[in-house]
Design goal:
InterPro entries: Fungal_SecMetab_SDRs (IPR051468), NAD(P)-bd_dom_sf (IPR036291), SDR_fam (IPR002347). This protein has 243 residues and is of the alpha/beta class. It has helices at residues 16-28, 60-72, 102-123, 154-174, 211-224, and strands spanning 7-11, 33-38, 50-54, 78-81, 133-138, 181-187, 233-235. α2 (60-72) packs parallel to α3 (102-123).
Length: 243
């Protein structure tokens, strides 16, 4: 039976992939309501089935309160975490270990690992216990330890590898109480966004993907995945990424 979530939460809903994912959900699921969270709520898509909220890791009480309100109003069927950082004005991908800094690593882990962990903490219990529910967080192929043959990008790789471990741990715990729910990481491909813009030069023809295509493919993966695949990480084409 096709997965047809009616209550969807999207974190990072103002970014390229997050925004595209919101629109894809609205198009596919004609009666679904989408609860959108972003650090810049004014950039969240405007729609009569969209409810906007601000997102701040510095306001855990606010995050907890949002989760409790959503639980009281019916819970969630799908949670999609599209937050992530590869670079910022104060944290660049490190090509060499000599470039590592405490502040840069903390900033990257803060966004890529700690924030998704806090979202898991408060929102995973909102998934249904008796039917399929999905938690999917944007990970990355470069977070694979066994597939790393180039090195570099220390903080980004490590933060995504840590996220993958959190996903695995949460999946094991959740299956004890939510036997039909799935917790996965998803790799969106190289998407044309602010995150990838400084690294697009030299990409092979056709490798750069539009956000709308990536979002559609990721939703296809979410639709097909089942409980036997929980705790794993999948690319946009449905192939599993090695730990």
């Amino acid at each position: 039976m096709p997965f047809s979530p009616q209550r969807i939460a999207v974190f990072g809903a103002s970014g390229a992939i997050g925004t595209a994912f919101v629109h894809e959900c609205l198009d596919r699921f004609e009666t679904a309501k989408v609860f959108c969270f972003a650090r810049s709520p004014d950039r969240i898509p405007v729609h009569d089935r969209v409810e906007s909220h601000d997102l701040s890791l510095n306001d855990l009480e606010g995050l907890k309160a949002r989760a409790e309100a959503l639980k009281a109003s019916g819970g969630l069927d799908l949670i999609f975490v599209a937050t992530g950082q590869l670079h910022s004005p104060t944290a660049k991908p490190e090509k060499t270990i000599r470039s590592l800094s405490i502040s840069g690593m903390e900033e990257t882990f803060h966004t890529n690992t700690v924030l998704p962990a806090m979202i898991m903490k408060y929102f995973l219990p909102l998934l249904p216990k008796q039917q399929k529910g999905v938690f999917a967080a944007i990970s990355a192929r470069v977070g694979s330890i066994s597939d790393n043959s180039l090195g570099g990008w220390y903080s980004y790789r490590a933060s995504k590898a840590a996220l993958n471990m959190l996903i695995r741990c949460a999946a094991i715990e959740l299956q004890r109480t939510h036997q039909n729910s799935v917790v996965i990481g998803v790799h969106p491909g190289t998407v044309d966004s602010e995150l990838s813009k400084p690294f697009q030069r030299g990409l092979p023809e056709g490798q750069l993907m539009r956000p709308v295509k990536s979002a559609a493919l990721l939703l296809d993966v979410i639709n097909k995945v089942d409980q036997s695949q929980t705790g794993r990480c999948f690319a946009y084409d449905g192939t599993e990424i090695a730990p």
